[in-house]
From TrEMBL:
PANTHER family for the chain: 5-OXOPROLINASE RELATED, HYPOTHETICAL 5-OXOPROLINASE (EUROFUNG)-RELATED
Domain Hydantoinase/oxoprolinase N-terminal: 17-193
The protein's name in its UniProt record: Hydantoinase/oxoprolinase family protein
The organism's place on the tree of life at top rank: Bacteria
Residue ranges constituting the Hydantoinase A/oxoprolinase domain according to the UniProt record: 216-500
Residue ranges of every copy of the Acetophenone carboxylase-like C-terminal domain listed in the record: 519-683
A Pfam short name: Hydant_A_N
């Protein structure tokens, strides 16, 4: 679309809402013009050397191609991997930790668990703060919140001087029992600010005031570790948007699937570490509800990883303890399982002559060999090209032209070492990638206690449709639903997400009639905090407050989260709360103890402000032949077969065709195996059903 046409399309009354998600290889854009219902999408290669520059490139391309007018953008939601990449690459800020004297080993001891108890070669990750940068301060708070020993400010002053001299950029303050009373942490934080105003300081109680010192400390450390890079990135983002004439207040996707404003993101950095993966699940949940799908397994394959999540009843599942690189995240987040297998995952032959795939990725620079950007090592994408499933049209909205010869050369290097043909080697790469995903999905299903044969697979991301059908067949699933624009589902998630803030207060009380008034008071305080947070985000409409409590039988080490009804607290109905706990325990562990004493550990509240009510056009289905654009050779695993190639834009609701086939579109390519029926529904989803 040329500039003149774009200018004509940019109406003064336009209302653009834009979602953006930055991945390891591409930045995705999903823009909706609300008045016309027109959806524009785009993918742009990332610029790791200058994060955020690709955002301006994408907005300029949207204006050029789609008539997008930055001055008419009323909603801008952004997901980024800056935080999580900082942790994975260990490029965060040098930190010091101030903790209680005698507890200097808190982050090294952690929970005394090995990441993989069944591996003889398993090692624990190096802490983000080295032992010599942990300073014990003589200070003590009792478990009831009363002060046993005031902070030794002379020790604080000496520790600050040493931390500065050894290069610390920030300090984390985490003392025992600050979940009960954070005054000691606050006073030490204020002292550090006076002594060294050039250092940033976070206290554990302000980041996540929860019982258990390791979980509270590690969460605060993750927040501080990424703070300088995230804050600098968001400041540059705001300046770039302002310079482009964008009036919308930038919002960020959070690990919990909700949103917050960019100003909050600069200090509450830990809340956005899983923003990209969570956005994808939120977008998939919205699409599932639109299509009336009740149970979905999502498959989000990007350039570096494959992410999986369960959607049940049209809603994503939430949890705590998701891994950020090698470290657990103890704040609520959308439950996502990840594995280091993506389109850019590099295939190699180890010293024993065994073919392996990932976790090393070619990323966007240099990228897979077939991109022609300097990559020379074979990747999953190159294997798809060699087999013939990929490379028949331009990719990523015309930004990439596939070089088949370079893909053959890269895979050929491995083939010569393995003594196989190039096609056999490429198929082996794909088989290994699918098998590694299979193992991870089976773990997810086992933990959740679900039968995946009852679920529909939804593949998205640039690589999801390439491998999704093969994985679904291996899992014994019978249905697959691919949205119209699978490459930008994570960006869509930002468009449809709600504001969501999570708040917690440790109460640590037995469940009894006598304790309910105190528990009720804790929830009332959380409700005020939640409403104030929504108001600070600019939300002035009704708020939805969801209550839950971490509970356990007396003597258990860990808790389960139980959803509570506000009426139970208002009416003082301890029996109803107990029954809810018993039922939840039964569902999770297949048993409960009706006579067991129950403890309430943490009160939780989620404050939700509904996002815009968006909808995409629906089109009635009709009998329409699916006419292939042409036929092409594809190596299907045993032999080369001639298959149909379909253009996604030519497929209309009601179109039906059968595999093997290839479907090409702007943001991805579908590989549809033999024995598969494909149909387009009224939402423009591509539905696949698999034969026996």
């Amino acid at each position: 679309m040329d500039g003149a046409i774009a200018a004509d399309l940019a109406q003064d009354g336009a209302d653009w809402k834009v979602g953006v998600d930055i991945g390891g290889t591409f930045i995705d854009f999903c823009a909706l013009e609300v008045n016309s219902g027109r959806v524009a999408s785009l993918k742009v290669l990332t610029t790791p050397e200058d994060p955020g520059a690709e955002l301006m490139t994408g907005l300029a391309l949207l204006a050029e191609r789609e008539g997008f007018n930055p001055a008419r953008m009323t909603r801008f939601v952004h997901g980024t991997t800056v935080g999580i990449n900082t942790i994975i690459q260990r490029k965060g800020a040098p930190l010091a930790l101030f903790t209680n004297a005698g507890f200097e080993d808190v982050i090294e001891l952690a929970r005394l668990r090995m990441p993989d108890m069944y591996s003889l070669f398993c090692t624990r990750p190096e802490p983000l703060i080295s032992r010599d940068m942990v300073f014990g301060i003589p200070v003590r708070m009792r478990a009831d919140g009363s002060e046993s020993q005031a902070p030794d400010m002379d020790a604080v002053e000496r520790a600050v001087a040493t931390a500065k001299a050894t290069g610390a950029q920030g300090i984390i303050v985490s003392f025992l029992h600050s979940w009960r009373n954070g005054e000691q942490e606050a006073s030490v934080k204020a002292a550090i600010a006076r002594l060294a105003p050039e250092l940033f300081v976070f206290s554990s109680a302000e980041v996540w005031p929860v019982i258990r010192e390791y979980e509270r400390s590690s969460t605060a450390i993750l927040n501080g570790y990424v703070h300088p890079r995230v804050s600098g990135y968001l400041t540059a983002l705001e300046e770039r948007l302002k310079g482009s004439g964008v009036p919308a207040r930038p919002m960020l996707t959070k690990s919990n699937g909700g949103l917050m404003n960019a100003a909050e993101g600069k200090h509450a950095c830990v809340n956005m570490l899983l923003s990209g993966t969570a956005s994808g699940v939120i977008g998939a949940s919205w699409l599932a509800r639109q299509a009336g799908e009740d149970k979905i397994l999502t498959l989000d394959i990007g350039g570096t990883s494959a992410d999986f999540a369960l959607i049940i009843g049209g809603e994503p599942q939430f949890g705590t303890g998701e891994l950020i690189g090698e470290f657990p995240l103890h704040i609520p987040s959308v439950s996502v399982s990840s594995i280091g297998v993506g389109g850019g995952s590099i295939a190699s032959v180890d010293a024993q002559g065994v073919l392996r795939v990932g976790p090393e990725s070619a990323g966007s620079t240099p990228g897979p060999a077939c991109y022609g950007r300097g990559g020379e090592r074979a990747t999953v994408t190159d294997a798809m090209v060699v087999c013939g499933w990929l490379g028949h049209t331009e990719m990523a909205y015309g930004q990439l032209k596939i070089d088949v010869g370079l893909a053959h050369r890269a895979v050929g290097d491995l083939a010569s070492r393995l003594g196989r043909t190039v096609e056999q080697t490429a198929q082996a790469i794909l088989d290994i990638a699918v098998s590694e995903m299979f193992v991870e999905v089976e773990k997810l299903a086992s933990r959740a206690g679900v039968d995946l044969r009852d679920f529909t697979l939804m593949p998205f991301g640039g690589g999801g449709p390439m491998l999704g059908a093969f994985l679904a067949r291996e899992l014994g699933m019978t249905r697959l639903m691919a949205p119209r624009r699978p490459g930008v589902v994570s960006a869509l998630g930002g468009l449809v997400a709600d504001l969501r803030g999570d708040f917690i207060r440790t109460i640590f009380a037995p469940l009894s009639d006598a304790s309910l008034p105190g528990i009720h008071s804790a929830f009332e305080a959380l409700a005020r905090e939640g409403r104030d947070w929504l108001a600070a985000q600019g939300h002035d409409a009704a708020a939805e407050l969801s209550l839950s409590c971490d509970m356990r039988y007396v003597g258990q080490s860990y808790e389960i989260e139980v959803v509570l009804s506000p009426e139970w607290l208002m009416d003082g109905d301890a029996a109803a709360i107990a029954q809810a706990f018993h039922l939840t325990h039964e569902r999770l562990y297949d048993f409960h103890d009706p006579d067991g004493e129950i403890e309430l550990v943490n009160a939780r509240l989620a404050a939700v402000g509904a996002g815009p009510a968006l909808s995409f056009p629906e089109i009635d289905e009709k009998d329409a032949p699916a006419i292939p654009a042409r036929r092409l050779p594809v190596y299907t695993g045993l032999s080369v077969e001639t298959v149909d190639l379909h253009d996604r834009q030519a497929l209309v609701p009601g179109s039906v065709f059968h595999g093997p086939a290839v479907v090409v579109q702007e943001d991805t390519t579908f590989a549809i195996p033999i024995g598969t029926q494909a149909r387009v529904d009224r939402h423009l989803n591509l539905l696949l059903t698999f034969g026996e």
